[in-house]
């Protein structure tokens, strides 16, 4: 085994690393804009608070924003950005989230990687490149090899730094002497393992004179910009002269002048600091001032436009719970009308996000009845571990089906143990699912139960207050309105008589049970569509010879099937 592959195997065999690899691999493989890909991506994004806010903020940026109305929810932001853009943004920030939690020295490396990524994105936006988030991912991964060595092989990394500090080697030579390979070699192997796009691999080795694409040229420039400004020994060389050399090297390809670069540097500092604050990571104000001083020195200016760098973590980005709930409800409300162009599957996903972020839930699930209305099944969900929950959610629609179906049969919302203590059957379900509290909110359209929203939480505290329950009720009501607006559903009759043959006055016997059973689906569908368009049940029965009971049953099956299909879309 080569030295680089041997080191890669040791990293992959570590205790914590497989979880990161699984998340990144799941993100990278979610390539499409279909419902299943978006749901998988939403689960990755919503697990990290800083990633949630970053996706929403990106959708509201000038490059992506399409309307005057700001986007509030992750699921709506993902629809606007597309799976590809979210995939790239999520991959970048998953690296940030994983490695920023380690030692102070590693946090410094992540700070520099993030600066490179933000330099790259700002240059891409300034040049009008179509995919700035892909360039951001390239910038974030540009120094991945060094981050991996610093985190997983700290003793070897200390030896490399000693060689560099004593001016015996440059970074590449020192890494080769200690490890037997360069940082880029390990970074490339890891990116191949994750299935990163080729553009990331190209960006790792790109140079001013060896960049194959505009994106890799931007990555190379962003890396050199970070190095010349922030990774230099005090008193060594001339920062302004060195920066001029970097700009001139890349000018034939990028055509950036000093004014452009100053704008890029200032915005990258702001973006970097904001992400650290969003993630609740304390960035010493002195360190930010040092970075700003280094940038001003290299640019030869006395000031940089930047935001306030003395905010407490989360203070500028965390919304109060009730304000967040209101924004999420308004987002969902704006998509209820079919004229919004939002499909029902997207409406359900918005409702699930509203419940997950606005109420004390760990997991939320949208459930629908089977086409024959005999079972209740999970169709989509969000939250940690929701995949295993979806597999367990399949209950018969009978009193023996358990607490969830019982709530639907009684057409009543249920939140335990808020409304009352759990009984033995409910405690058994909670124990099976590994939760301490759960809620069921039936979805009832024109007096007919078509499904429910379900949520649960593993911890016993906190229990939701009245405002949280009102929020969940409002979300459910909006889902009902969305379904009603997309399907004109006549009221369902309360009594269902036995199926019998029908004789029309003065004519032959109507359609018999045998003839009904052999009718083509298209013929049945045509009769149901007459009902949905507003024709009276008895009128359709009289003209077709099919009993009212049979027509009513077909209508129920048609609506249940439509709901199941839309929820799974």
β-strand percent reads 5-15%
What is the β-strand count? 6
The CATH topology of the largest domain is Hypothetical protein af1432
- Number of individual domains: 3
Mean pLDDT: 81
Radius of gyration: 29 Å
- Largest sheet at a glance? 6 strands, antiparallel
Low-confidence blocks of residues: 307-318, 489-515
Give the overall shape. elongated
Helix content: 55-70%
CATH architecture of the largest domain: Orthogonal Bundle
| Strand order within the widest beta sheet | 3-2-1-6-5-4
Number of helices: 27
Q: Roughly how many Å apart are the termini?
A: 46 Å
For the record, what CATH class of the largest domain applies?
Mainly Alpha
Task: Name the CATH superfamily assignment of the largest domain.
Answer: Hypothetical protein af1432
What structural class is derived from the secondary structure elements? alpha+beta
Name the descriptors.
single chain, about 575 residues, alpha+beta, Beta-Lactamase, Arc Repressor Mutant, subunit A, 3 domains, about 60% helix, elongated
Structural commentary:
This protein is an alpha+beta fold. The chain folds into 3 domains: 3-299, Orthogonal Bundle (Hypothetical protein af1432); 321-486, GAF domain (Beta-Lactamase); 499-558, Arc Repressor Mutant, subunit A, CATH 1.10.10. 60% of the residues lie in helices and 7% in strands. Strands 3-2-1-6-5-4 form a 6-stranded antiparallel sheet, with helices on both faces. Helix 2 runs antiparallel to helix 6 (83-99). The relative contact order is 0.07. Mean pLDDT is 81; it is low at 307-318 and 489-515.
């Amino acid at each position: 085994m080569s030295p680089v592959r041997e080191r890669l195997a040791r990293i992959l065999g570590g205790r914590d690393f497989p979880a990161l690899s699984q998340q990144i691999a799941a993100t990278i493989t979610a390539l499409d804009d279909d419902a299943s890909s978006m749901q998988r991506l939403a689960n990755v994004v919503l697990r990290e608070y800083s990633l949630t806010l970053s996706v929403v903020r990106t959708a509201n940026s000038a490059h992506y924003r399409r309307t005057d109305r700001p986007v509030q929810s992750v699921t709506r932001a993902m629809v606007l950005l597309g799976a590809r853009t979210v995939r790239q943004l999520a991959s970048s920030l998953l690296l940030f989230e994983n490695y920023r939690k380690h030692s102070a020295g590693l946090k410094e490396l992540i700070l520099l990687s993030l600066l490179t990524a933000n330099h790259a994105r700002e240059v891409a936006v300034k040049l009008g490149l179509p995919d700035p988030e892909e360039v951001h991912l390239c910038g974030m991964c540009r120094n991945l090899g060094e981050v991996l060595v610093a985190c997983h092989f700290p003793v070897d990394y200390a030896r490399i730094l000693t060689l560099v500090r004593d001016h015996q080697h440059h970074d590449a030579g020192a890494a080769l002497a200690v490890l037997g390979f360069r940082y880029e070699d390990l970074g490339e192997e890891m990116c191949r393992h994750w299935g990163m796009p080729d553009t990331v691999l190209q960006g790792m080795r790109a140079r001013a004179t060896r960049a194959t694409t505009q994106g890799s040229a931007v990555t190379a420039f962003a890396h050199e910009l970070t190095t010349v400004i922030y990774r230099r020994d005090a008193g060594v060389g001339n920062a302004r002269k060195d920066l001029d050399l970097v700009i001139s090297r890349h000018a034939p390809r990028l055509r950036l002048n000093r004014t452009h670069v100053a704008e890029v540097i200032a915005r990258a500092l702001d973006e970097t600091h904001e992400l650290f604050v969003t993630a609740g990571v304390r960035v010493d104000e002195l360190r930010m001032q040092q970075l700003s001083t280094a940038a001003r020195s290299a640019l030869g200016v006395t000031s940089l436009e930047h935001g306030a760098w003395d905010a407490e973590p989360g203070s500028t980005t965390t919304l109060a719970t009730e304000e967040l709930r209101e924004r999420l409800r308004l987002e969902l409300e704006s998509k209820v009308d079919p004229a919004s162009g939002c499909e029902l599957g997207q409406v359900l996903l918005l409702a699930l996000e509203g419940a997950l972020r606005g109420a004390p839930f760990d997991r939320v699930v949208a459930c629908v009845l089977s086409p024959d209305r005999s079972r209740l099944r999970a169709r989509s969900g969000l939250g940690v571990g929701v995949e295993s929950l979806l597999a367990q959610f399949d209950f018969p629609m009978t009193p023996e089906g358990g607490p969830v179906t019982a709530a639907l049969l009684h057409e009543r919302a249920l939140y335990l143990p808020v409304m009352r203590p759990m009984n033995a059957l409910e405690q058994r379900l909670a124990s099976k699912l590994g939760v301490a509290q759960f809620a069921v909110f039936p979805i009832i359209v024109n007096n007919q139960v078509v499904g429910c929203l379900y949520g649960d939480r593993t911890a016993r505290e906190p229990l939701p207050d009245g405002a949280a329950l009102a929020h969940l009720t409002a979300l459910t009501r909006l889902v009902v309105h969305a379904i009603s607006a997309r399907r004109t559903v006549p009221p369902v009759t309360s009594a269902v008589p036995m199926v019998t043959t029908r004789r029309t006055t003065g004519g032959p016997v109507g359609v018999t049970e045998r003839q009904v059973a052999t009718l083509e689906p298209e013929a049945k569908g045509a009769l149901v569509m007459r009902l949905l368009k507003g024709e009276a049940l008895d009128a359709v029965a009289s003209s077709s010879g099919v009993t009212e009971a049979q027509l009513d049953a077909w209508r129920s099956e048609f609506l249940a099937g439509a709901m199941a299909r839309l929820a799974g879309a």
